[in-house]
Amino acid sequence: MKILNLEQGSDEWFSARLGVPTASRFKDIITPAKGDKSASYKGYMYELIAERLTKDRENFFKSEWMERGNEIEPLARASYEFMHEVEVQQVGMIFNDAMTIGISPDGLVGDNGGLEIKCPKPSTIVKYMLDGGLPLEYKPQVMGSLMISGREWWDFLAFHPLMDFYQIRVYRDEEYIKKMETHLNDFVDELEINYSKLKK
């Protein structure tokens, strides 16, 4: 594991993750429910190869709610710290030893935990509250964060300043992580082979 203390969203941060599969997109490599190979597997690979060839991001669209989420994420983190009487450590990126896959955690908590913050529209938080559990679409991201960081648990926090926040603590699913590791290794190998065919 290698930690880079870069400011998230900075040019250096974007450069460090360029062309590298990261946890927020692991859902494009494995399916959230069963950990099978995703139908988006090839498309995501082509996107990463294009980033390496152009040395530029291909996908940088941010919706209105994504922009707003970035703005209020510090408030969400501070609220979490106050509620749990902890200090959240911010880091830029965490890579595996080979620097072939990475995560950009919203925070590390103590020696064993991590934090993923989402700031969606209120109706989405209502859905999370009524459904309970970790929203399935974020399972690859959270399990990937646990896999790469080696930590025991990860708190998923859905925050809106006018609502009670929704939080659930997620522990390692070793069976799912094992499937994930296999598919990620295959993805990285295939990515390198295909990139080597095209690079000059």
Write the layout of secondary structure elements.
Elements: E1 2-4, H1 11-17, H2 41-54, H3 64-84, E2 88-89, E3 93-95, E4 102-103, E5 107-109, E6 113-118, H4 122-131, H5 139-149, E7 153-158, E8 166-171, H6 174-198
Parallel strand pairs: 6-7
Antiparallel strand pairs: 1-3, 2-5, 3-4, 5-6, 7-8
Helix pairs in contact: 2-6, 5-6
Task: Please state how the strands of the largest beta sheet are arranged side by side.
Answer: 2-5-6-7-8
Helix/strand class: alpha+beta
Label the overall shape.
globular
Q: What profile does the largest beta sheet have?
A: 5 strands, mixed
What is the oligomer described by this structure?
Answer: single chain
Describe this structure in words.
The structure is a single chain. This protein is α+β, with helices and mostly antiparallel strands and 200 residues long. The chain contains six helices and eight strands; from the N terminus they run βαααβββββααββα. The strands form two sheets. A five-stranded mixed beta sheet has the order 2-5-6-7-8, with helices on both faces. It has a three-stranded antiparallel beta sheet with strand order 1-3-4, sandwiched between helices. Strand 5 and strand 6 (113-118) form a beta hairpin. The two termini are 30 Å apart.
